[in-house]
Amino acid sequence: MSAIHRRSGNEAVQINPSAGDINIGLTDHGSDWYWAAFCIFAATAVGFVVSCAFVPRKDRIFHYLSIGAAFFTSLTYFTMASNLGNTGVETEFTHYLGGGIRQVFYSRYIGWFLTSPLILTNILLFSGVAWTTLLFTLGIQEIYVVAALIGSLVPSTYKWGYFTFGVAAWILVMYNLIFVARVNAKEQGSEVYRHYLVMLVGIAFIWTLYPIAWGLSEGGNVIAPDSEGVFYGVLDVISLPVLCSYFVYASRKVSVEGLGLAFEHGFRHSTVLPVTEKHIDQTPVPETRASGETAV
Question: Is 101:89 a contact under the CB 8 Å cutoff?
Answer without folding.
Answer: yes
